[in-house]
Design goal:
By secondary structure, this protein is α/β, with parallel strands linked by helices. The protein contains 7 helices and 9 strands, in the order H-H-E-H-E-H-E-E-H-E-H-H-E-E-E-E. The chain has a single domain, classed as 3-Layer(aba) Sandwich (Rossmann fold), CATH 3.40.50.150. Strands 1, 2, 3, 4, 5, 6, 7, 8 and 9 form a 9-stranded mixed β-sheet that branches.
Length: 244
């Protein structure tokens, strides 16, 4: 992606917003409580996608052994650490210095070696990653085509990309923005509904970058099951992408 990766994708106000949450990121009952509930659901999808794409044994504990993984918009490392435990050599990138500092401290305390970097993914010259993940990030970036182009540039031949993001629907505005933020379940200012991206829009962005999108799965919520994978894409969805 020649000039796509030269564009800046970071919104300073978004980086500042999430940077303020850094100290509380690993508190499962703090401001990032929803992420802690979301993470096991994402990990279930990610593990299945890894096994399907790379042909790894679903019973194996380190399906990413010998592989490189990149998590973009990593926050304080909530996904990087599980990826490292799955055997990957992990790089985490985030726009907020505070998040990277918190991530480094937590990884050290967990005995994990993770390469954390602060900056714009398109400016860091990253390449050759077998797995590229970016969870709940694309809705926060300044230039979505440039961001997808930077993710594609980081992906190794034969690699796997996994993205998750809120869908732009009436229900997501009511529940994720007005509901979750209004009730204090998510910090105010976290979501901007106009920046949410539909599966069709994401498909077109990925296609323009030479990537083929898999069938998305929704991340839904119910009283009986909490957050779970679902065919209902109305709130949030997670999807794979590979080179076409």
């Amino acid at each position: 992606m020649s000039n796509a990766t030269s564009a800046h994708t970071i919104r300073p106000d978004e980086a500042a917003h999430f940077g303020k949450l850094a100290a509380d990121w690993w508190n499962p009952k703090g401001s990032s409580a929803m992420l802690h509930k979301l993470n096991p659901v994402r990990l279930g999808f990610i593990r299945d996608a890894i096994d399907a794409h790379f042909g790894s044994d679903s019973r194996g504990v380190k399906p990413l052994a010998g592989r490189k993984a990149l998590d973009v918009g990593c926050g304080a490392g909530l996904l990087c650490e599980p990826l490292a435990r799955l055997g990957a050599e992990v790089t985490g990138v985030d726009a907020a210095e505070e998040n990277i500092a918190a991530a480094r401290v937590h990884a050290q305390g967990s005995g994990l070696s993770i390469d954390y970097r602060c900056g714009d993914v398109g400016q860091l010259g990253l390449a050759g990653y077998d797995l590229v993940t970016s969870m709940e990030v694309i809705e926060h970036v300044a230039d979505k085509p440039a961001f997808v182009g930077a993710l594609e540039a980081a992906l190794a031949p034969g690699g796997l990309m996994i993205l998750s993001t809120p869908n732009r629907t009436t229900r997501s505005r009511l529940l994720l923005v007005e509901g979750a933020e209004g009730l204090g379940m998510v910090p105010k200012g976290t979501h901007h509904w106009d920046d949410f991206i539909t599966p069709v829009e994401l498909h077109d962005l990925l296609d323009s970058a030479g990537l083929k999108m898999g069938n998305p799965l929704g991340i839904a919520w119910s009283v009986s099951r909490g957050l779970h994978l679902s065919d209902d894409l109305a709130l949030n969805y997670i999807v794979t992408a590979t080179r076409g």
